[in-house]
Design a protein that fits this description.
Elements: E1 3-6, E2 9-12, H1 14-18, H2 32-42, E3 47-51, E4 55-61, E5 77-81, E6 84-90, H3 92-113, H4 119-132, E7 144-151, E8 157-162, E9 168-170, E10 173-176, H5 180-190, H6 193-197, H7 199-211, E11 221-227, E12 233-234, H8 237-261
Antiparallel strand pairs: 1-2, 3-4, 3-10, 4-11, 5-6, 6-7, 7-8, 8-9, 11-12
Helix pairs in contact: 3-4, 5-7, 7-8
Length: 262
């Protein structure tokens, strides 16, 4: 164990003393296992979500599949119900468990209430599960953050984020995973009501924000679009390439404008 010296007497390192049990706070108010779970999320592949007026777009960075692996079995965007889906960053096995619990709750809500669950309801349900794993012995936090997107029964688009701590919040646009801060800063700079009103501009913003940190280009990017009352649409490689071409034209126009203004 590392030692901190106080006078001439060594004492165990603070983190080493308080990160063994999930239910024990450190004296300065930290739950180290929850912080370690957030660190696992920050090492996961990037995911981005953008809410428009009539659509919600989710984009994820895909890891390259092995030569003999079926890429259809590697999914970072999952459907919970006809009107709700999520993209995640972090441990895929943990995400699979949460997705299964979310799907069961969506169907249970339909059977009990005879109406689909609101997006906030299912987000809160997933957040409650995560929170319960931060205060029980013999468990560890879920190493997953998720962007939950969909439409309420009244047709309102929604986008929420959940963290391993059990926190959830609503967003117009957000990012999770590796380099999430960089992507979030880009979204803050470029998101506008005009962008949200245009479906194509909304898709372009989500993809361009993702390409800020994805070095391999569009071949390792997956984009999904959800519309009210319609099935989740996973864009084909050709459709993604079309948006990338439009983004490149925009960049060239911006560069020419900047050069002309000098």
């Amino acid at each position: 164990i590392n030692a901190e010296y106080m006078g001439d007497k060594p004492r165990p390192n603070m983190a080493a003393r308080y990160d063994r049990a999930i239910t024990v706070f450190s004296p300065d108010g930290h739950l180290f296992q929850v912080e370690y779970a957030l660190e696992a999320v920050s090492k996961g592949t990037t995911a981005v979500g953008v809410r428009g007026n009539s659509i919600v777009v989710l984009g994820v960075e895909k890891r390259s599949a092995a030569k003999l692996q079926d890429p259809r079995t590697v999914r970072k965007i999952c459907l919970l119900d006809d009107h709700v889906c999520l993209a995640f960053a972090g441990l895929s096995a943990d995400a699979r468990v949460l997705v299964e619990k979310g799907r069961i709750e969506c169907q249970s809500h339909r059977l009990t209430v005879e109406d689909p669950a609101t997006v906030e309801y299912i987000t809160r349900y997933l957040a409650q599960i995560k929170q319960s794993y931060t205060q029980s012995n013999g468990k560890r936090p879920f190493g997953v953050s998720a962007l939950v997107a969909g439409f309420d029964p009244d047709g309102t688009p929604r986008l929420y984020q959940t963290d391993p701590s059990g926190i959830y919040s609503a967003w117009q646009a957000n990012a999770i995973g590796r380099s999430a801060k960089t992507v979030r800063e880009y979204l803050e700079k470029n998101y506008s009501p005009e962008t949200a009103a245009d479906e194509h501009a909304t898709k372009k913003l989500a993809l361009r924000a993702l390409l800020e940190v994805v070095q391999s280009g569009s071949k390792n990017v997956e984009l999904a679009v959800m519309r009210n009352g319609q099935p989740l649409e996973i864009l084909s490689g050709a459709a993604v390439d079309e948006i990338v071409a439009a983004i490149e034209k925009d960049k060239e126009a911006e560069a020419a404008k900047a050069k002309a203004s000098k």
